[in-house]
Every structure is written in C-alpha cells, then in structure tokens.
Design goal:
Number of strands: 17
Radius of gyration: 21 Å
Helix content: 25-40%
Number of helices: 10
Oligomer: single chain
Bound molecules: alpha-L-sorbopyranose
Distance between the termini: 41 Å
C-alpha cells in the first residue's frame, strides 16, 4: 500500500480546481509513492469554499490560511491564490515544515521571491513553482531534441503568449488588473510562463529591453456602478539577450483579438528548429538540416507515442491529452521528489530567476533602456 500525503490547498478558483483535479487523478494514472489525501481547503468566501470542497471532496475547510499552514495533519501546502498572498503563505508554511507547491508568478517581485527561497531552503522542505507548461510532453520532447544536439547552437527564440479575454473595455475590474494584488498584468501572468520556458529550453537571460502598455485605463466596478483605474499592463513586449549568445523576442497580451490561449514558441538553431503552439499541445513541428535537402521541411510530430515523455501513462497513439494533464504530470514529479528528498524543477530558485527577468523588463520599460539581469539569483 502506498503512503499518504495530506494536502492543504489555499485558493478555490481556476487554479484551485486544476490542482484539485491533478491530486485526485495522479494515482489513477501514475505509479506515485504517495496517494494524495485532500485534507483541507482554504478560501475567504465560506459559501464558495463549501461548494469547492464538496465538488472535489476536500475533507475539511478553513477560512484562514494562517490556521491551515499550522495544522499538523497537513504535509503539503498548495498555494493557488492571487499573487499578493504567495509570499506570506509560503514563508509561514515553510516555517511549519510543509512542502510547497506555489502558483506562478512566484511572487510580487524578486525581493519577495528571494525571501520565499530563503524560507524553504532554511526549512529543508521541497518547493515547486507551478509553471505547468514544462510538463507538456511536446515541450519535454523539444528539450530532448536540444539535449541530443539536434537543434545545435540556439540562435533565436521567439515567444508569444496571446489571449483576448479583456478586449471588451466593459469587462469588469478584477484582482488581475490591480497592481497591489497582481504585481503586474499580462507581464507577470503570461510572460512569466514564456520566460520560464525560455530558461528551460535556451538558458539564462543576460539583458532585456521592454515596453509595457495599458490600452484600457479604467474599467467598470463589478457592481457596474462606477469605474476604477487599471494599474497593470495590458500588453508587454521585450527583446532579450541570453548568456549563451542567443537572442529572443517576447510578447504577452490580453488584447490579441481571436487568440484564446495561444502560447507559441519558435526556436532556431544551427542544426535544426522547432515550434510549438499550446492550442495544439499534442504537436511539435521539427525541422532538421540533417534531412536530405530535397526532403527538408518542418515535420509535424504528433507527441502521443508511448515513448514520448509522460504519454505511456495515458492513451494509445493519437488519443490526445489536454491542458489539465500538465498539472497531473507536475504533481507526479513533485510527489516523487518529496519521496526521494530530491530537488524538483522548476523550484523557488527558478521562480526567483523568472521574477528577476520580469522585474528587469518592467524597469527597462520605465526607464527606456536595456537592463542587465543579475548573474545569479
Ligand atoms: C489567465 O490569463 C491564465 O489562466 C494564466 O493565469 C495561467 O497561468 C495560464 O496558464 C492560462 O491563462
């Protein structure tokens, strides 16, 4: 019989649901060292919390995260809240010896991220940032192509993360548009993902030059009675140089009309290239200069073979998987790392490095100049 790991989750909305689903599903598909027990859920709104707990089968409820993190019957704290609260919850959870899975971006800024990293290192607990796109099989396969030398020396990464859900100027104000609660807008929400993927696939950032825009400066209050100021970016683009000589372009926006969750990466190297689009997440396009010249072209690989990363646990070839599977893969890797007392990536150090790039882009945009990223976290 496998051991149990008792999970306490803070946050009952979009991420709370995707993480709950992952904890429930993971032992059904993967051989994991622990069976997650959905021990306690925490949220500010008691009615929403009760509905969430009922829907996913969380065994108990707390309306104070301070109480949740000190409970002795919790081994792993899952932080699925808005960005403002990540740091306080993580530092307290670490002090109580809990392992931590934290949503992205890790923190409001790199000062907080540093504090969080110090806290988990001091406590000796496992820590992971929920950059779930590192667990898309096609992305892991792309990483393998790089590691096997099939892409060669990387020259370019062009990455965009495009959504359109707030194009309507009457879309009401929410925490995501408030700098005090979110830190930044499209930048921290979406660029954080493609920055993390770029670090995973290409390497460390050296310097950035950015531009941030807010198209709709005021939005209606949720009750429709007034208007409030939007204090975050709607779109942020930047140029980047990497320490290994590669260069990159990045754009995150919530104003890409028609694009819903369009994260596209193109990587070009001296021996080959690949591109990936999250809206077609089972596919990877790969070009190889090793192919006979008369046959060269981007081939579309359907990443659903049992030999592809994570796929063996799922369905026969061609039976595609979806967005929610990335969280299941993430939780699988976290549980194994907890059992083996091994590092799991992306960890809080990766979260800090991502935050340093985010902060540097914001500074660059404010001061209209290139900004160098610290050589170490
Ligand atoms: C909203 O823009 C959002 O849910 C992000 O917060 C997630 O990290 C991303 O995966 C999808 O879009």
């Amino acid at each position: 019989m496998t051991k149990e790991i008792r999970v306490g989750i803070v946050g009952t909305k979009f991420m709370g649901r995707s993480h709950s689903n992952a904890f429930i599903d993971v032992p059904h598909f993967f051989e994991v060292p622990f069976t997650p027990v959905l021990q306690a859920a925490c949220g500010r709104n008691a009615a929403d919390l009760a509905a969430f707990a009922r829907q996913f089968g969380w065994k108990s409820q707390e309306t104070s995260w301070e109480k949740l993190v000190e409970r002795e019957d919790i081994d792993l704290v899952d932080i699925s809240t808005s960005n403002l609260t990540h740091c306080a919850i993580a530092v307290a959870a670490a002090k109580h010896g809990k392992h931590i899975l934290c949503e992205k971006p890790l923190a409001m800024n790199s000062t907080e991220a540093r504090q969080m990293l110090d806290a988990v290192q001091e406590a000796g607990v496992r820590h992971m940032v929920a950059f779930n796109y590192r667990r898309v099989p096609a992305i892991v396969q792309a990483k393998k192509l790089i590691e096997e030398g099939k892409i060669g020396k990387i020259y370019h990464i062009n990455a965009v993360y495009l959504q359109d859900w707030i194009v309507d100027p009457n879309f009401p104000m929410a925490w995501r548009f408030d700098a005090k609660e979110a830190g930044s807008g499209a930048h921290g929400d979406l660029n954080a993902h493609i920055i993390d993927l770029a670090r995973y696939l290409v390497g460390e950032f050296e310097a950035v030059s950015g531009d941030m825009t807010t198209f709709v400066k005021e939005r209606p209050t949720p009750d429709g009675k007034g208007k409030v100021q939007v204090t975050v970016d709607d779109a942020t683009s930047f140029l980047a140089r990497f320490t290994n000589g590669a260069v990159g372009t990045f754009t995150a926006t919530r104003f890409a009309t028609g694009r819903k969750n369009f994260l596209r990466l193109e990587v070009f190297g001296s021996k080959g290239a690949f591109n990936f689009n999250l809206e077609r997440l089972n596919e990877l396009e790969y070009f190889s200069l090793n192919d006979p010249v008369v046959e060269q072209g981007f081939r579309q690989v359907l990443v659903t073979e049992s030999k592809h990363p994570y796929v063996n646990a799922w369905w026969p070839p061609g039976h595609i998987i979806g967005w929610e599977h990335t969280f299941i893969h993430e939780v699988r890797d976290l549980l194994i790392a907890i059992d083996q007392k091994a590092e799991v990536y992306p960890n809080f150090y990766d979260g800090l490095r991502c935050q340093q790039v985010l902060d540097a882009v914001a500074l660059s945009a404010a001061e209209k100049r290139w900004v160098t990223i610290p050589a170490e976290g």
